[in-house]
Design goal:
Blueprint lengths: L18 E3 L10 H12 L4 E7 L2 E3 L1 H18 L2 H8 L3 E3 L23 H11 L11 E3 L38 H7 L1 E6 L2
Parallel strand pairs: 4-5
Antiparallel strand pairs: 1-6, 2-3, 2-6
Helix pairs in contact: 2-4
Length: 196
């Protein structure tokens, strides 16, 4: 089922009735800080939030990372033990900066120029699978663009576990596959603004 607006799911605001839906902003990338600054200026620091939706669910960032992103990685890697072995042959993983490693398994530790989630999801999934990085500490899996050694583990290549709930029209960036984790993450991301 592809739906056009979260309120269609049950005909009412499910979790935050004092907040209105303000649209689907799509991919932020390197413009993250600029966009957040704009939201703060327009709505105030506490006057807006990003929400990820699926039938029966409205989640803020950290919960959405666990519930949607991490779950997709877990279900994909669980049935591909050879990929888990490949990941474990490295000493660690990162996305956009070596400092990503300091985030460990905490999605709220966002120290770089753009949000990084896939590295944290991989660390959490390894724990769930009772596995760990076993390679040399200087052998880093970079889960990023086509020229990185971990490209196939990027969110644009990992299938979202319930592709039928991805909202249309897709907000998938051009570098990501339709039906991927990234497609869900961008297409089902909503801006909510506090009613004044």
């Amino acid at each position: 089922m592809i739906y056009e607006h979260p309120e269609v799911l049950e005909g009412r605001d499910m979790k935050w009735p004092e907040w209105r839906w303000e649209g689907r902003p799509g991919y932020f990338g390197r413009r993250r800080d600029e966009i957040i600054r704009s939201y703060n200026e327009n709505y105030g620091h506490d006057g807006w939030k990003l929400i990820w939706t699926a039938p029966g669910a409205e989640c803020e960032f950290e919960d959405a990372c666990h519930r949607f992103y991490e779950e997709s990685y877990y279900l994909h890697l669980r049935v591909h033990p050879e990929l888990v072995d490949e990941i474990c042959s490295y000493g660690e993983c990162m996305d956009n900066a070596i400092t990503n490693i300091q985030s460990g398994c905490d999605y709220t530790k966002q120290e770089a120029f753009s949000t990084h989630i896939q590295d944290i999801a991989v660390r959490n999934v390894l724990r769930l699978l009772d596995r760990k990085f076993e390679g040399p500490t200087d052998k880093i899996l970079v889960i990023r663009s086509k020229d990185s050694n971990g490209y196939k583990f990027g969110p644009g290549n990992i299938p979202f576990y319930a592709p039928k709930v991805i909202q249309g029209p897709s907000k998938c960036p051009p570098w990501a596959a339709r039906g991927s984790v990234e497609d869900f993450w961008q297409s089902n991301k909503w801006l909510r603004v506090r009613n004044t």
